[in-house]
Write a structure and sequence with these properties.
Two copies of one chain form a homodimer.
Chain A: E1 2-9, H1 26-37, E2 46-47, E3 56-65, H2 75-80, E4 87-95, E5 107-115, E6 129-130, H3 137-147, E7 149-152, E8 167-178, E9 181-188, H4 195-207, H5 215-222, E10 237-243
Parallel strand pairs in A: 3-10, 5-6
Antiparallel strand pairs in A: 1-3, 1-4, 2-3, 5-9, 5-10, 7-8, 8-9
Helix pairs in contact in A: 3-4, 3-5
Protein name (chains A, B): tRNA pseudouridine synthase A
GO biological process, one term (chains A, B): tRNA pseudouridine synthesis
InterPro entries (chains A, B): PsdUridine_synth_cat_dom_sf, PsdUridine_synth_TruA, PsdUridine_synth_TruA_a/b_dom, PsdUridine_synth_TruA_C, TruA/RsuA/RluB/E/F_N
């Protein structure tokens, strides 16, 4: 039986999602719990994609196969008893045998949170990047609009990206201002390595006047990581939702 | 010159506010920083009151005396460079030589946050108590109303309380429901040891039907800690605001 789970995690104390020898990872934590439940038999989980160290998730999705006769809705209770309190399986359901958490993704939404308070606030230190500057939100929104739609995002992906086809479609980039924080909502059909963090970093540099909104067009055309802005820090980023 | 500071801290990694030998405390962290700035001369800080291990503060207030010729508004910047990122001085101003952060308190507001989601959410694990039950908010509000005003709060203070006069005036207890969380706002002219946590714990037991709202009257009359409900955990509690 294939089980599809939605999981949330605070990335602060994880060395990222993907299993790494000798490091605490989200995947490792869940696979260990599943293997315990399966009496020591190793159980692989497959997620919608990786997240880096420090990156959070509100609604990451993974699947696994089991031959245990456990009602799907019981899996959150079983797993949450065995995993750390900084990761929680929110829901589980039976999926078809052909469902694949990575290959079947239609769209994902990421959010990037920026706190613009003059003082770095203790409660936000792991959950929003501190950027105590005045920003021009309208300029940022203009720049964001240039990034929406289908583009080659080579300039907005890590130079280490090995994928050849860097054309992706961004459905929207919304910038919301709420109680001293900016929330960048980015939804698209696929994301390259570091793409949302580079978009957020670049938009902040539009906001502070280093770049003009139109400069973003030249950055896209350049197809060169060096042409775009900085990579914003990991701890402001959330994998918010995965849609199938 | 006497300086009045407002400070916020995430209590998770502190062994409470008050200095304790060999433990990391908020007071110890700030006094160390101030002593560094004063070239090794010890500087005592005096807060509005203590908070226990795990308890948070949005607006704790303390004062200290200095003979350094530093503009008052510079103190947050100076101190925040030297203290951990889980504590931040939000503002500072010059106060009169007779101002006293503890003796001059007129009222304080505490908040207690309860998360009622079925699953314990990773991002709330240090910042709200998890109480995954259906609660009767109207019953809780009725019970809270009985606690408002001037009463002897012996039943709502730790049995270890040494203070003789346990009469305090509660200006209000408001219960707000917001996005899967309950926020208890309690404002009064003074609080006994554990008082807000016992009020929160008791109100939750009214909410789940263990007690009726009127039972709270009998608890007050009993003047006995054993008569009231449980002490709710520290990590849901915030010293929100101190008024002078």
């Amino acid at each position: 039986m294939r089980i599809k789970c939605t999981v949330s995690y605070d990335g602060s104390q994880f060395y990222g999602y993907q299993v790494q020898p000798g490091q605490r990872t989200v995947q490792g934590e869940i696979e260990q719990a599943l293997s315990d439940v399966h009496k020591g038999k190793f159980v692989r989980i497959t997620a919608s994609g990786r997240t880096d160290a420090g990156v959070h998730a509100m609604g990451q999705v993974f699947h696994f196969d089991t031959d245990l006769q456990v009602p799907a809705a019981k899996w959150p209770v079983i797993l949450n008893q065995k995993i750390g309190d900084d990761v929680a399986v929110l829901s589980a359901e039976e999926a078809s045998e052909t469902f694949h958490a990575r290959f079947d993704v239609k769209t994902k939404e990421y959010r990037y949170i920026v706190n613009t308070s003059p003082v770095a606030l203790p409660f936000r230190r792991h959950y929003a990047v501190h950027y105590p500057y005045t920003v021009d939100i309208e300029a940022m929104r203009q720049a964001a609009a240039y990034l929406e739609g289908e583009h080659d995002f080579t300039s907005f992906s890590s130079a280490k990206t090995e994928v050849v086809d860097r054309v992706r479609n961004i459905e929207f980039i919304k910038i919301e201002a709420f109680e001293g924080e900016l929330i960048f909502r980015v939804k698209g059909n696929g994301f390259l390595y570091n793409m949302v963090r580079i978009i957020a970093g670049t938009l902040l540099e539009v906001g502070n006047g280093k770049y003009q909104p139109e400069d973003v067009l030249k950055m896209l055309e350049a197809k060169d990581r060096g042409a775009a802005g900085k990579t914003a820090p990991a701890h402001g980023l959330y994998l918010w939702e995965v849609n199938y």
